[in-house]
Amino acid sequence: MRNPTLLAAPHRAGFFSGSLVLLAAMAWWACVIVLRLTGVSLSWPIPPAWLHADLMIFGFFPLFMLGFINTAGPKWLGVAAPARMHWISSIALYALGSVLVALATWMPSLHAAGDALHVVAWAFAVWIWADRIRASTAADRRHAWLVLAAFVLALPALTCQLAASLYPTALHTALWVQCAIQIGIWAFLLPVFLIVSHRMVPFFSSSVLQPYVTWRPFWLLYTWLVLCLAHAGLSLAGWADPRINSGITDLVFAALLLYASYRWSLRRSFKVPLLAMLHAAFLWSGVALTLYAAQGLAASAGIYMGGLAPLHALTIGFFCCTLLGFVTRVSLGHSGRPLAVARVTWVLYWLMHVAVLARIAGEFFAREATLWFSMAAVLSLLILAVWGWRYVPMYWQPRADGQPG
C-alpha cells in the first residue's frame, strides 16, 4: 500500500484490501467445493467449514466497512476525517490479519495470529469511530451510535473466533465457533447492513425518484435490531436444545423487512439501475428471514428442511449483493466518474442473484447438492473476478475529474 493514491482516502485502502481478501477467500472456497465434486479427498489441518466461516464473516466485510465508515461517516457527523495514520493503521492491521487467516489452510499456526490481529485492529477501529462521534455536534447521530454499538458487538464475536483458533482441539471449540458465527452475523454484520440501508436507501431513492416520500422511522430500525439479537440468542439456545428455534420471531422480522422494501419503492427503483441494485439486494433480507421463519416453524412440527438455504440467502443474497451495489456506487462517485451502471456491471449483479439461487437449490436437491454448491462457488468467483478487474484499479488511479480524494 505504498501507492500514494491508494492511501488518499479510506475507501480506497479499505475497498482495495477488502476486494483482494474477498477474491482470495472465494477462490479458495471454490477450490474446496470443486475438489469435493471431483471426489478428491484431502486432509485439511483446519476444518474447511470453520475457516470458510471465519473468512466470509470476518475476512473482508469489515475492511469494506472501515473504508466506507471512515469516508462517509465524518460527513454524516459534520466532523473532520479521522487522522490519516489512524485509519491506515486500522485497515492495514486488519488486512494483514485476513491474509494470515487465508494462509492458514497451508500454515495452520497463522490462524490464531490472524484472528488476534483482527481483535486488535478492530478494537482500534472502534476507538477511532467513537472518537469521531464524540467530536460531532450533529443534531442526529442515531445511525452513527447504532453502527458503533454493532462494531462493539463484533469484538466478542472476534474473541470467540480467536478462542477457537487458539484451541482447535479443545472440548468446547465447536461452541466457540458457533458463538462467533451467530454473534458475528446477527449482532454485527446484519445490524450494520440494516443500519446503513435504513439511512442510505431512502436517501438515494429520494434524490432520483420524484415524487418520493422518504420513509425511515426509527421504531422500525430499533425493532429490526432487537429482532437480530433475539435471533442470535435463540439460535445459540437452539444449538444446545433443538426444540428451541426463532420461527415466530423471524416471521415478524421477515414481514417488517418486506414491508420496508415495499415502502421504499422497490418497483420504481428499476428506473435507475444503480439504485435498483440496492433495492433488489435489500429484498433478499426479507426473503432470507422468510426462509428462516419457514424452517423454524417446520422444525416445531418435526419437519427439518432447508439446511443452510436461509443463511446463504442472507449472506450471499443480502450481504454480497448489497456490497456490490454500495461499493460500485461509492467507487464510481469517489473516483469522479458518472453514477451510471455499465451493462457488464448490471449483468454481473444479476448473475450474483443466480449464484444465490444455485446455492439455495443445493439444499433442496440433496443428490446433486455438491454440483449446485460448485456452480454457486465458481460462478460467484467469476463474477467477483470480472467485477474486480473493472473496479479495483479505480482505487489506485487518480480521480477522473482531477479532484483530490
Automatic annotation (TrEMBL):
Q: Which keywords does the record carry? A: Membrane, Transmembrane, Transmembrane helix
| Top-level taxon of the source organism | Bacteria
Q: Per its record, how is this protein called by name?
A: NnrS family protein
Which Pfam families does this one have?
Answer: NnrS
Q: Which organism is it from?
A: Silvimonas amylolytica
List where the protein spans the membrane. 12-35, 55-73, 85-106, 112-130, 142-167, 173-197, 218-238, 244-262, 274-295, 301-327, 339-358, 370-389
Keyword presence, Membrane: yes
Q: Does the keyword Transmembrane apply?
A: yes
Q: Which InterPro entries match?
A: NnrS (IPR010266)
